[in-house]
Design brief:
Blueprint (H helix, E strand, L loop, with lengths): L1 H5 L1 H39 L4 H53 L1 H20 L3 H4 L19 E2 L5 E4 L5 E4 L5 H7 L16 H15 L3 E2 L3 H8 L11 H4 L56 E7 L7 E4 L16 E4 L8 E3 L2 E3 L8
Parallel strand pairs: 5-8
Antiparallel strand pairs: 1-2, 2-3, 3-9, 4-9, 5-6, 6-7
Helix pairs in contact: 2-3, 2-4, 3-4
Length: 362
């Protein structure tokens, strides 16, 4: 009976540790992971900003990451303390019984009190109330969800420079209202991406737009599209799309988080990261990526200039669409290859503008 009474405080302590581990630890870890993913995505998007807005945003991101590091350190400390108590309780019980036989009850009580006090201190040094302090991601920076275009043509198509490329690229996919000027029989809402266009249709549009605007418009190459998605520097520029297909794992236009964070893009319904659109979404509806472009993942597949491989049978599509949800398909390095005449309601395109060919002021 003496034994049970003396170890009661340790048993109670072990139960409190277990409850604390479940009620606090798992919640904090889940919240920290979510915030860390949001910060990864946000870092890419604020890179498109400039001046004070960019500096302020990165400062807030740094502060949030510092807080996350403090929480992780505290969680590690709590985990160590939990492990210490749980590993020790069984050993202390056995030792206490032996100490009673060898040294008597009172000395055994003193040893147990000392050890249980140490265990309580180990747990108490990581205060649960400190871990309960809210972890918050920095607010969206000024201009978030918009992009400052370097060039806007007469049709209102906005273009930005792609780091590492010699082109400007449209911040969004070609809209119905753009394509309707080229072909009046297109169905759909004006500010949605045009769909059911073949590679040949997209090329014809670029040729028409070049004549109309007096500049050189074309489809982006596969490598230029990779640069726009942020992975061009990690691929061999001269390799064929087939050689690069799905070779960079776990990297997406919004960052490295999976599943996609809220607002990352227009993807298939019926999953944990569903969006509000069952088909295409109006261009610019979701967060822009680091270079200031929208829908580099989801909404519609986008034609590129290249052949998929040396057989010259298939052209390249990039970026996934509104009906895709697979982690592999939504990776920035994934490609789809189809014939140039292929048309589908998940396929559209984005336009690139050659710099310095007709207008050296760009």
């Amino acid at each position: 009976m003496v034994f049970e009474e003396l170890i009661e405080n340790l048993v109670r302590l072990d139960k409190q540790v277990a409850a604390r581990d479940g009620a606090i630890g798992s919640d904090i870890v889940a919240e920290a992971k979510a915030i860390s993913g949001a910060l990864n995505a946000l870092e890419g998007r604020v890179a498109a900003l400039s001046g004070g807005a960019r500096e302020n945003s990165f400062l807030k991101i740094t502060e949030a990451r510092k807080r996350l590091a403090e929480v992780q350190k505290a969680m590690d400390g709590l985990g160590d303390a939990i492990g210490y108590v749980r590993k020790s309780v069984g050993k202390w019980k056995a030792e206490f019984a032996l100490n009673i036989e060898i040294e008597g009850a009172e000395p055994a009580r003193a040893v147990l009190r000392e050890r249980s006090g140490k265990a309580a201190w180990e747990i108490g040094r990581v205060r649960p109330e400190a871990l309960r302090a809210p972890i918050t991601a920095p607010p969206a920076p000024t201009g978030f969800g918009t992009a400052s275009a370097l060039f806007v043509n007469s049709m209102g198509m906005k273009f930005v420079r792609v780091p590492g490329a010699t082109i400007l690229i449209s911040i969004w996919e070609t809209r119905v209202q753009d394509f309707k000027s080229f072909r009046s029989s297109t169905n759909g809402e004006q500010n949605h991406p045009v769909v059911n266009v073949s590679w040949e249709d997209a090329k014809a549009f670029c040729e028409w737009l070049s004549q109309k605007e007096g500049k050189l418009y074309r489809l982006p190459t596969d490598h230029e599209w990779s640069l726009a998605a942020g992975i061009g520097g990690r691929e061999i520029a001269t390799a064929s799309p087939s050689e690069k297909n799905a070779k960079i794992e776990g990297v997406y236009p919004w960052g490295t988080q999976w599943p996609p964070p809220q607002g990352a893009g227009n993807f298939a319904s019926g999953n944990d990261y569903s969006d509000a659109h069952l088909g295409t979404a109006p261009v610019g509806s979701y967060h822009m990526n680091g270079f200031g472009g929208f829908d580099l993942s989801g909404n519609v597949w986008e034609w590129c200039e290249d052949w998929y491989d040396g057989d010259h049978k298939f052209r390249v599509l990039r970026g996934g669409s509104w009906c895709n949800r697979s982690e592999v398909v939504l990776q920035s390095s994934s490609r789809l290859y189809v014939t140039p005449t292929y048309r589908h309601d998940t396929v559209g395109f984005r336009v690139a503008l050659e710099v310095g060919k007709e207008n050296r002021s760009l």
